[in-house]
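Hi F.,

I've been meaning to write this up properly since the lab meeting, where we talked about keeping a consistent format for the predictions we share between groups. The idea is simple: the sequence comes first, exactly as it goes in, then the C-alpha cells exactly as they come out, then a line or two of notes. No screenshots and no reformatting. I'm using this chain as the first example so we have something concrete to point to.
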Amino acid sequence: MNGILQLMILYAGIFIVAETLHRRGWPAAKTRKFVHIGSGIVSCLLPLVVSQLIAIGIGLIFSLFLFWTQRKRVLGSIHNVQDNNVGAILFPLGLIPCAIWFWDNSLVFQSSALILGISDGFACIWGRRYGKRGYNVTGYKTLEGSGVFFITTVIILLVVMSFSGMVMSLSKVCLILGGALVLTAVEGALGRGWDNLFIPVTAAIITRIILGG
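Output, unedited:
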C-alpha cells in the first residue's frame, strides 16, 4: 500500500507542477511534454513497488481520468492543444500491454516506459524548437526530432543492457542500433499521439530480443 501511495503522490506532483506552470504562462505544448517525460520516469518505477495487476489498474485509471478531464475541459496543461492530439489518453494505455506481456522481466517494462517518456518527449521538444526539415506521414514530425529520438533510444537501450549484466558485443550493438531505428520509424510514422500506443510494446519486444528472450 505504501508503494501505491508513493506512486500516486509522484504522479499527482507531476500534474500539479504542470498545471501551476501552465497557469503562470507556460504553453500547453511545453507542460504537456513535462507531464509526458515525468510520467515515463515514474512509470519506470512500477515493477519495483507494485504488482502486475495493480500496474494494469493504474494504467486504466489514469486513462479514464485523462479522458474525463479532456471531456470536462479541465487540466489545461495537458489538453489545451489544437492538433486533435489523443496522446495523453493513449500514454497509459500504451503501457498496459507491456505490463501484461512483459512483466516477468522488469527491465523490459522499464525500457518501454523510459523510451515512451524520455525519447518521445525530448524528440518533440527538440523538434518544435530546432526542427527545420519536416515530414508528414500521419502527423507532422521533423528529422531533427527523429534524430534526437534515435540517439536517446540508443542511450536508454545501452543503459538497460548494462543493468542486465550482459557483455557488450558487436551483435548486441547492431541489435540496439537496429532496434532504435525501428522505434524511430514507428515514432515518425504515427502522429497526433497515436505513437504513444505503439512505441511501448515495440520497445518492449526489441528490448526482449536484445536481452536474449
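Notes:
The two ends are 32 Å apart (CA to CA).
The mean pLDDT is 94.

If this format works for you, I'll send the rest the same way.

G.
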